[in-house]
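Notebook, student rotation project (T.W.).
Task set for the rotation: take a protein with a known small-molecule partner, predict the structure of the complex, and write up what can be learned from the model alone. Partner molecule chosen: molybdenum atom. Sequence and SMILES entered below by T.W., checked by me.
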Amino acid sequence: MSDAVSRRALLAAGAAAVGSSMLSACRGVLPPTYGSLLGLGDTMTFAAHRLFLPRRALAPEFERRQITPFPAINTVDPEHETYRRYRAGGFADWRLPVTGLVDRPLSLSVADLKAFPARTQVTQHHCERGWTAIAEWTGVALSRVLEAARMRPEARYVVMHCYDRLWDSYDLIDALHPQTLLAYGMNGSDLPVPHGGPVRLRVERQLGYKNLKFLARLTVVDRLDTVDNGKGSLAAAYGYSWYAGI
Ligand SMILES: Nc1nc2c(c(=O)[nH]1)N[C@H]1C(S)=C(S)[C@@H](COP(=O)(O)O)O[C@H]1N2
Ligand SMILES: [Mo]
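Predicted structure of the complex:
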């Protein structure tokens, strides 16, 4: 029995050592929630994904015939005055400012985004509330836009704000991932307003709530603790993980 106890103690010590060495190996890539116990799950998932998953591993893609009904949830039509005005004009005046740690700040219309090489992908959305749905998304890879803006070497995160006041942020592994899109098309049509038109984010390796709709502006930063609530997103202030990797 004492053998079993000491074996258990040894296993526990081993697990703790693996845990702490994993965490120390991850210093510098910790998510902004790392400082609290509540952020522990977030930290472990983030660390494990960043350490063990290939950076450019693709989320599964599907056939067009597998497209399913896609419920538009939460905000379906932001009340923001500027957004309303853009919407009334068919989004001809909508612009997406790209600023912060870039040498060439941009202000992009939908037509400007469509002038970049396009990518189309059929992917499965995973809402944190349990439902999933498959849709076809067309847009420009965020990496192309960041390249056009000449992102500076000190850049570490991209912060995005929406017209319904939701905001979030992404590290460069997700921002530069080939399936991370500024999407202006869905299932072969312009992106419908309830789904975030004119332009939403697709970040295929994270849960639903990280896929921001109604994009208003993008800012490149080197740290998140000085941005707004310091937690990297509005959702994080309500207890959601900043990193929602799947
Ligand atoms: N701006 C904004 N983006 C958002 C949301 C929102 O309420 N506002 N909801 C999120 C959640 S929780 C999900 S599951 C998806 C839903 O996308 P859909 O409305 O196109 O189905 O959008 C995400 N992006
Ligand atoms: Mo969601």
